[in-house]
From TrEMBL, chains A, E:
Name assigned to this protein: NitT/TauT family transport system ATP-binding protein
InterPro entries: AAA+_ATPase, ABC_transporter-like_ATP-bd, ABC_transporter_ATP-bind, P-loop_NTPase
Organism the protein comes from: Tistlia consotensis USBA 355
Annotated keywords: ATP-binding, Nucleotide-binding, Transport
MF annotations from Gene Ontology: ATP binding; ATP hydrolysis activity
Family: Belongs to the ABC transporter superfamily.
From TrEMBL, chains C, D:
Domain called ABC transmembrane type-1: residue spans: 59-241
Protein name in the entry: NitT/TauT family transport system permease protein
Compartments where located: Cell membrane
Presence of the UniProt keyword Transmembrane helix in the record: yes
Domain of life of the source: Bacteria
Transmembrane segments annotated in the record for this chain: 59-85, 97-117, 174-199, 211-235
Major subcellular site: membrane
GO cellular component entries: plasma membrane
Biological processes, Gene Ontology terms: transmembrane transport
InterPro entries noted in UniProt: MetI-like (IPR000515), MetI-like_sf (IPR035906)
Its membrane topology: Multi-pass membrane protein
């Protein structure tokens, strides 16, 4: 597997009707090593989702280059994307929503059940998404992204709308999955504590047009990241780099 | 057997169907060496589609149409079928007693502005009264059944319509202001000039002279039967869809009156003269590019 | 604003039909014209024509034509509509053709079909299909233009491929448009079939209707209309509405 | 899957029309039949009929009828469709009526209108409108059933009231359905107008078509068709497509 | 103005297709005094949004009773609802989305501009929602709810998908608006710190079927609620009521 490398010289949304054109990203360069979990932080509207869409291959209208991690047999990587909105198919049940994303040849049948149970959705496999709470649909979207056993996992604020214990449990699930198979993860969050708890590195985006203004390795061993350690690291960041991290 | 067949498009409740049904019922087709097949259809337009589509060998229409198509390069030919023509009908208590009275009235015209009866009526009005009916009266073109209803409802003052519809009105007590035969006569033509007839592809007729001849014989025999026998008409009654006896009698008598007489050189010359008149009034929309009645419009037998 | 019928006994249908009959009866009595026979007169014709076998025969013939044209037109129309909705250049190019075919008078297609392919069943069905296909195309294409880009992007990322995307992402969103096409399609095809039968068939409701029109037998005309409407009502209750309930199961 | 045209010169239209003409010419040459005259022959008729004033006159008459019926049918149909989509009980009750009106043959409405209201302009327009309204109702109602409940709830909480809700919440969501109704409506109304004119008017394209049909003059029939298609194409380019661009401005 | 009082003996979603019926709320009673700001916390799927919909009058199919705060002139209260999803009209610009909710007779013209600017959306008034980031659409939804000058404000996780400084600024805006006019606020959140910072009281919901299991007044003066005080209060809650608050 190779690394993920993306370079965006310019990503501009054109003017439409009265709305002016908008430069969402400029001079952004980013490399994520194979199997690395990188957290992105940045103000609302700075272009994080735009970047994720570019990496996912959904948006090819940008100036720059993209190279995805490729596996040994050189097939394109399986991508799991937890969109910022759940984007489930409302006309398919929870189970079908997850199964449809999976490749039946690659994945066992029990996986869906297992993941749904782990996300606290055991009894809801046959429900249609519009009959779930928002937090539940978000969890389904998470399960879908996990279920494809992705080589590249893109997560756009996956744990909002979840109560703290559930979110914590899903973070653990993420780490477990990530450790079981080497998965490259790009994780967008607004929560510095969450970023510290999960990330190998934290990338901080500037206000729009988005650029990486800080690249901070999280220098705490994974098994030592309890609440106190995270809090301490956070304090230190805020104290050391008040310009970047104040208020986070 | 296949090369004896003669396929004819007929309106299911139309007069042609009566004649051909008589042919079949009495085996007159077999007797004359042909096998008659009828394709019942629901409208006049359907019959012309069926001839174009090659689904039938013959249909019934007027020779003006034949002339137009011949001029346009379609080699069709004509054999007379009936002299029965339409009429101008008014309510029995109508103040309209002459052609001139139609001025300023609502006049229903079946078949559209190129209808032969309507053209002839206009010609007569112009010649007799110096009246341009197309502008002096208020013509309303429409489907014949609709026009009949409108007349009955009092929304029209008079209608120019085809003979079966005129017969129905007559049976209901409406007055015949003027028959188209009367118009022909007033314009100096023979009353009983056949206008409609069997129309077929000339090449087909030339290739199968036996069928045409057999067909002519068979239909002539049928007409003789229908002219003479009332019992025959009782048999036909279901096909006629007559609401009551009066309509039945009117239809029967109308048909009998329309049985054409001889069709020789004299009659055909008369027709050619009538064509000139129609061409003058109807113009290219009616006759297309035909300058005069094209050669071969009337079937002369397989020899020509 | 959403309808979810429970299957039970269709009371509203009954009430509504009765009211309709009542209104018709009153109107017929008020007008007292042979141009609007009352329900009783029409029912009498219906019974007579059914007993004679004419009505069932002609209705069956027409329904067979309607069914054939319906499936052809829907399949073809949806396929073309999907293609035009999917590929913008294709759409731009063929849009004028679509407008042409949309606006060719039924008469023209029917004549040409009959003249070219003979006065046969195939020509009749083809003529009807040609008349309806452009309408299905327009409806489907309009649906394609309203697709939600979010779910399409999801399908792309998760590599659904064309077939899965069509089946699980596109078609469910097109459902209301396809329902429109089906509902209006049935009625339209039936109307065109009538003209087609008038112009060149020797059987079917259209053929009969025109005969009765020539005789101005409004009762018979209405009898055939009522019979066909009953069939469509049955299709609606037995097929379309259950299908719709199924398709809309997911709505909250 | 979304189309956003820039207004510029319509090259695809030109190319597409030329290709169509070419194909037509080739087909006409291959068949070499009176039943399919080539573009040149049709153009000749078009020119002659335009010069004589017959075509512009009849086209104008027909277009006036089409326009009147179109606006009547769309207004009425959308209003009824909105009501049926909004009130479920109303819908259940009137559904059978809708199916009835949807499936009444054009012939029947036309005859009845003419018989009751005379062979006049009003009867003609009414007959066409009655034929089209149920189709618009079905389309609109289908759109109403697909409305997003989320935005409707929002409108309720923020007390939009019926008028604001209709204008800002409902109609924008119905836009693709209304577009369908408009696009298919124009073509359908034109087709029905032809039948109406055939049965009881003394002017208009349908009246002329029937004359030419009786004379089997296919060139003239096609000339009138081409003229009408050109008009619709102009409406499409000058009205519907700009409108559509405007209405879809918000799509990303 | 009277108080808001809601009592839900039973709120049940019926079974549809294969999905079984679901009891979302049972034996829930709640009173919010006029001008009080109450925060609701509870696990995902416990029925918080269901309750808000009931209070908003959107869902009348429950067993129980609802009485809304009524003003002196007895007109029904103006309600501002920040739905869990933004629910903007995608076919109207940002400005129109806000204006449409307002009553032109009651509200001045400058208000929209002012609120948009306060939410950091100054340049985006003419943009269509689909051309905004999710965080931006959420802010528009907030502005809309504020712009109606509500008597009753329902907020369903209004500050997720926002970076911490922006969220903090909007919290201040909320408090400012709330203090300027007496507004009854029901505020759903998953963030205990946020609840402590904002609420007069915190109500804790049980796992489904939802009930109020704890009702805790936040006994810190409003002007003393800095980060440290909030953190301290949180610690105390977790220590004193581990059953209810562990993990929050
Ligand atoms: N329309 C519906 N039909 C059936 N069940 C529903 C419906 N809406 C919600 N539910 C169920 O009711 C329960 C409560 O849903 P609700 O949206 O109120 O949860 P919530 O507390 O807001 O959760 P979250 O924090 O995830 O938003 C959930 O289990 C959900 O599945
Ligand atoms: N389709 C689009 N057309 C025009 N502009 C867009 C479009 N999508 C996004 N933008 C603009 O690009 C900028 C970045 O948007 P993006 O969604 O990437 O932000 P974000 O960092 O994900 O923000 P958030 O944290 O709020 O989700 C925003 O200013 C937004 O208005
Ligand atoms: Mg984003
Ligand atoms: Mg919720």
């Amino acid at each position: 597997m190779s690394d993920l490398a993306v370079r965006v010289a310019l990503k501009r949304y054109d003017a439409v009707a009265e709305a002016p054109a908008h430069v969402a990203l400029r001079d952004l360069a980013l490399t994520v090593r194979h199997g690395e979990l990188v957290c992105l932080l940045g103000p609302s509207g700075c272009g994080k989702s735009t970047l994720l869409n570019i990496v996912a291959g959904l948006d090819e209208r940008f100036e720059g280059s993209l190279s995805l991690p490729r596996s040994a047999d050189d097939r394109p990587p399986a991508i799991g994307y937890v969109f910022q909105e759940p984007r489930l198919l409302p006309w398919r049940t929870v189970r079908r929503n997850v199964e449809l994303a999976m490749d039946p040849a690659r994945h066992g049948a029990g996986l869906v059940e297992e993941l749904l149970a782990a996300a606290g959705l055991a009894g809801f496999a046959e429900a249609y998404p519009q009959r779930l709470s928002l937090g539940m649909t978000r969890r389904v979207a998470l399960v879908r992204a996990f279920a494809v056993e992705p080589d590249l996992l893109l997560m756009d604020e996956p744990f909002v709308s979840l109560d703290a214990p559930t979110a914590q449990q899903l973070r653990r699930l993420l780490l477990e999955i990530w450790q079981r198979r080497p998965t490259t993860v790009l994780f967008v969050t607004h929560d510095l504590r969450e970023a510290i708890q999960l990330g190998d590195r934290i990338l901080l985006f500037s206000p729009p047009p988005g650029r990486v203004v800080a690249d901070i390795p999280v220098a705490i061993p994974r098994d030592a990241r309890d609440e106190a350690a995270v809090e301490a690291f956070r304090r230190r960041l805020i104290d050391e780099r008040p310009g970047d991290f104040r208020g986070l | 057997q296949a090369d004896e067949s003669v396929r004819v498009a007929v309106l299911k409740f139309g007069t042609v169907n009566w004649e051909l049904d008589t042919v079949q019922a009495h085996g007159l087709d077999r007797a004359n060496g042909i096998a008659l097949e009828m394709l019942p259809l629901a409208g006049k337009s359907a019959t012309s589609v069926s001839l174009q589509a090659g689904a039938v060998d013959m249909m019934v229409t007027d020779w003006v149409w034949v002339a137009r198509q011949r001029a346009a390069g379609m080699a069709v030919s004509f054999l007379p079928y009936s002299t029965a023509l339409g009429a101008v009908m008014v309510p029995s208590d109508s103040p309209v007693t002459s052609l001139a009275d139609l001025a300023g009235r609502k006049l229903g015209v079946a078949g559209g502005p190129l209808d032969k009866s309507w053209l002839l009526l206009q010609a007569l009005a112009r010649r007799q009264d110096g009246l341009d009916l197309a502008t002096a009266a208020e013509p309303v073109f429409g489907a014949p059944p609709l026009l009949n209803e409108q007349l009955i409802d009092g929304r029209l003052d008079a209608v120019v319509t085809f003979w079966p519809y005129a017969a129905r009105l007559e049976a209901r007590g409406y007055r015949r202001l003027l028959g188209v035969a009367d118009i022909l006569q007033a314009l100096g033509f023979a009353r009983d000039l056949p206008l409609v007839g069997y129309v077929f592809d000339e090449r087909w007729a030339q290739e199968h002279p036996g069928r045409i001849e057999g067909f002519v014989e068979a239909t002539a025999a049928a007409r003789r039967l229908m002219a003479g026998s009332d019992a025959e008409w009782q048999r036909l009654r279901p096909l006629m869809q007559a609401e009551d006896d009066a309509v039945f009698r009117a239809l029967r008598d109308g048909f009998r009156a329309g049985i054409p007489g001889p069709w020789g050189k004299a009659e055909q010359a008369e027709a050619a003269r009538l064509f000139e008149l129609l061409r003058r009034i109807g113009g290219p929309p009616l006759v297309g590019t035909a300058e005069h009645l094209p050669e071969g419009t009337f079937w002369q037998g397989s020899s020509n | 604003m959403r309808r979810r019928r429970s299957p039970g006994f269709p009371w509203p249908l009954l009430a509504s039909t009765l009211l309709l009959l009542l209104l018709w009866q009153l109107l017929a009595m008020a007008l007292d014209s042979r141009n609007l026979p009352g329900p009783a007169a029409v029912a009498a014709v219906l019974v007579a024509q059914t007993a004679s076998g004419a009505l069932p025969y002609n209705l069956a013939v027409t329904l067979a034509r309607v069914a054939a044209s319906f499936f052809l037109a829907l399949t073809l129309g949806v396929a073309i509509g999907l293609a035009l909705g999917r590929w913008r250049d294709l759409d731009r190019f063929f849009d004028p053709w679509l407008i042409l075919f949309l606006n060719v008078p039924a008469l023209v297609t029917i004549i040409l079909c009959y003249v070219w392919f003979g006065l046969g069943e195939a020509a009749a069905v083809l003529a009807v299909t040609l008349n309806k296909v452009p309408l299905v195309v327009v409806t489907t294409r309009e649906g394609m233009r309203a697709l939600d880009p979010g779910t399409l992007e999801m399908a792309r990322v998760f590599r659904f491929g064309p077939w899965k995307t069509l089946r699980h992402v596109v078609l469910p969103q097109l459902a209301p448009f396809l329902m429109t096409a089906a509902r209006t399609g049935l009625s339209l095809i039936w109307k065109i079939v009538l003209v087609v039968e008038l112009l060149g068939r020797s059987s079917g409701v259209g053929f009969e209707l025109n005969l009765y029109f020539q005789l101005f037998d409004v009762a018979a005309i209405l009898a055939y209309t009522v019979a066909f409407v009953a069939v469509v009502q049955a299709i609606e209750l037995g097929l379309l509405q259950p299908l719709e309930r199924r398709v809309n199961r997911w709505r909250r």
